[in-house]
Amino acid sequence: MKSSSADALLHSDPLLGIFRMFGELNDLLVSTSLSIVPFDDMAYSTVEHARNNVSDLILIPWLPPSSSTTTDLQEAPSSPRILPHSSPFDALFKSTGVEKSTSVLHSQFVRGVFSQSKTDVALFIDRGHAPGDARTVGSRQHLFLPFFGGPDDRLALDFAVQLCENPKISATVVRTVKKELSEVEEPAMAHLEDEKASPHNGLTITSLAGLPDTVYGNATTQTRLQSETADNVTWARYTSPAPETAATSLTSALSRIEFVELASPTPLHTLIQNATSKLETFVENGARLLIVVGRSRRLAVEDHSQELKDLMNSYGHVGSEVKKTIGDVATGFVVSGCKAGIVVLQAANNGT
Length: 352
What we know:
The chain is of the alpha/beta class. The protein has helices spanning about 1-10, 15-25, 40-50, 65-75, 100-115, 150-165, 185-190, 220-240, 250-255, 265-285, 305-315, 320-325, 330-335, and strands at about 55-60, 120-125, 140-145, 170-180, 255-265, 285-295, 340-345. It has one domain. The chain is built from 13 helices and seven strands. It has a seven-stranded mixed beta sheet with strand order 1-2-7-6-3-4-5, with helices on both faces.
């Protein structure tokens, strides 16, 4: 019966129909499939599907509560109503209710994909690209990418450059180093200092034990040196491209990317302030801002734990589930209340 249902839904499911129509309108080959599996097998099935089809990237969304869940909650007087434009993490920030369990289960699925996948993975967190009605601004997009280093950040940089081959997409890439105040030159700080980000409502979460986490082997001195070398090579390839890349699509893409180097004792605060300022500017000019970050749960270059605590003291607290799912840098943007969409990337584990 399940097999029969899957065959029928494959041709009638409206979401799959949207993907097929998108492909037809943009001359893209779209192949759809559908499987009915127990929830506990969803992450494994996703990873296996990507492996069997030799996929380059697994793209998964952070799903807000379903419309049926919203209806159920609206009928229950004691349950908070989920607004149409609420943050996709709002459900995790609730202490009670059906919507929290739905979001936590989806978090478990996302982390299952991250932990099991041997393929590059991207998680899209739709925060509306802008507050309120401004979320419907035009088709031009600007990417904001903090580059600390490590395999996930290198993938994020490659991903951003590839997207910028589209003439409607531009980017700002900020190579960021954490340094004490005495080591930071004033011009480097001044280059990215902007107005303070707008305050965010206090948020709380009850962390649930037992959900799987992504576990990596201990990094050795050799693997860290290899990763640092790869960071420098990747950065140089885009900031100082070889002459043979002239008049190519790469040159066209790089012409739409601003590369900046930043040294700061509080890099997350500085990056959030700059992204918030850019969001306001781009919304005014009819463009969307999308933040692209590495998940950096493996071979992380910087430890942001203390700065995250400071951000939570300023904006509101989140528990370990958010941090374990999306990583420190993305968590900083979520905590701050920045309304830009976020793409979190994790590179396939190939040893570097």
